[in-house]
Amino acid sequence: MLLQHYLEDNSRKIPDNTALIFQGYRLSFREFNEMADAFAAFLQAQGVKKADAVALLLPNVIPCPVAFYAIMKIGAVAVMNNPLYADRELLHQFNDARATHLITLDLLANRMIDLRPKTGIKSIVVTSIGDYLPFPKNLLFPLVAKKKGLAATVKPAQEVYQWKQVIREYSQARPTAVPGGLGFEDIAMFQYTGGTT
Question: Is the pTM above the cut of 0.85?
């Protein structure tokens, strides 16, 4: 059984059980799997295929595990990156992995838009710490986010998408079967280390 199959199995067996909690916001296994399916379908619509590298540059927010499982579902390779890395370190990792798409935080998006021409990254999906907060945090976050440096305005650029909009637009979509299927011999992830692990 592959990693993504555990999520799919739990979404059928215990759909309403809590899978993730972020700042008090709870996501059930069903919601988690549906979001992963939606994002997987989006990635396929962007041309991502089996063995293509998709970079994640995120802290511990809901879109990080959702995107990770979406990548697994379509047989692509998740490239985990440290949001604290300098541009030269990120450039090395993006290029070494041959990443074609990136999911990142709004706080990092403008830097990544500027860095993109030096990489093979075609599209960037941007999320925010405030995307998944429970009431009343969801109402208070916009009021304090800019003041405390927890959110940023992303400059306009080609092929830059908003996470929540992507999930909404693809909410009824499901990823198509991976040609040739998936197996244990397929690469699932590139995990770079800074030497502290």
Answer: yes
